[in-house]
Structure prediction request, 210 residues.
Amino acid sequence: MQRVRRRCSARIERRWVALCASHIVWIWSRATIGFASSHANGRRRVRRTSLGLDHKALLEENAVLQAQVAALEVELQRKHDLNNKLQYESQFLTGMLARLDAKEIEAGAKLDAVGREFVEKEVLQEEPAKRQQETLKHSIADLDAAAREYDRLTALERQLLQQHATLTAECEAMELQHKAELQARKVDEYNRKRTMDQVTLTAHRPCSSS
Prediction:
């Protein structure tokens, strides 16, 4: 009975971990949608600014920036693929843990039934008693094996959740870095345009005076 109580506590802990995992997946999906939107807007702003400058150096710099953006998109897609794989493995483990819970409950019910039979019957014949003892031993062995498998899968699920949290943090950091780079590029191109306009204006002044 003590083993059954411990397994019930373990099931409660596993359901709490699964709830936390669902919350993490929801946060990750929201962050991914926001990053994709800001990323697309940043690329459109960079193209419009570069096309208006008509300067070879700025066009080359814009091409480099677009190549960097493409590399970031590839890296983000890789993170998405790995995250989907982790979600699939987490769902698979959740289903397996549910089946182990059902087996554990069934084994516990068999163990309780056998225990009641021993209490209710005061005198048992030798051969039936041996068979019942063997049945009880097998039930206990099955329950212990299920408990060990449950503990192993629970540890594996925790490891996958930790990997998922690490990937989420990396993607958030990448998003912040990408936003900062786009903003810096935008400011730099704006300053270059102003410098070019001033140079052009200065170059045309002597012609106007003459």
User: Anything to note?
Assistant: The domain at 2-181 is CATH 1.20.1270 (Substrate Binding Domain Of Dnak; Chain:A; Domain 2). The two ends are 106 Å apart (CA to CA). The chain has three helices and no strands. The CA atoms of residues 13 and 24 lie 17 Å apart.
